Amino acid sequence: MPTLDPASPSGLPLYKEVKRQIVQALSAAEWKPGDMIPSEKQLCARFGVSIGTLRKAIDELVSENILVRHQGRGTFVAVHNRGPRLFRFFNLIDSDGQRTYPQLEIVGFSKGRADKSAASKLGIAVGARTYRIATVRSIDGTPLLTEDITLSQALFPDLTAEKVRQRPSTLYNLYQVAYGINVVRIEEGVQACIAEGEQARRLGVEPGLPLLQVRRVAYSYNDQPVEYRVSHIDSRHHEYFRAVS
User: DSSP of 205-235, one letter per residue?
Assistant: First the structure.
C-alpha cells in the first residue's frame, strides 16, 4: 500500500484516509477475523503518518466495533461471537432491562429469486438468485421473535441448510468466518403490525395479537449490503431498545 499524501485526492482528512485504507485492507481479507493487525510503528511506516494520525483512525474503527483493543496484547479484527458483541445487533431487553441470549432455531431454508423489495435492499437485480432462511428465537423455551432472512447467492455461493444449522456460533459469525463477510453496521425500521399466518404460527400466538415488525439491512465494509432481515416480535414481555453511540 503506498504512502499517503496529506493532500490526498480523496479530499478526506488524513486520518480518515488512513481509516479508509485500513478498511480497504480488511475488505480484501489482508487481516482476517481475530487477527492482530500490525503494530502502530509498522502502520505509521506503511502510511507515512504520525502516531497521532494513526491512533485517530484506529480509535474510530474501535468505536465502530470493527477493531478491538486488548490491553497489553495489541489491536485485533473483531470477531462475531456469543459474547458482548452479539448485543450490538440483538436489541431486545426484558422488563428488568436485562439482555438474554436467545436460542435460535432454523425452521426453513430455501433458494429463490429476489423480489423488488429484497433486490432494492440488497443492491441486486430483481430475479437474482437468493437464499431464504426462516428462524425462531426463543428465551426459556418461549418463542420471542421470528425472522425471514434474504441473502444473495452471489455472496454466499455454497451456503446450505446443513451449514446454517451446524454453524458453531452466530449467523454473523458464519458469514464472517466461512465467507469473509463481516457485518459492521445495520439500519433498521420499526413499525407496529398484527400477528397473522406463518408469523402467528411460529410464535404460537393468536392471530391479531399486536407485534413489532423490524426491517433490517446489514452492511459489511464499504457500505456493502449483505443481508435483508424482517423480524416479527412478540413484545408483551420485552422492549425494543437500541442504544445510540
Answer: --TT-EEEEEEEEEE-GGG-EEEEEEEEE--
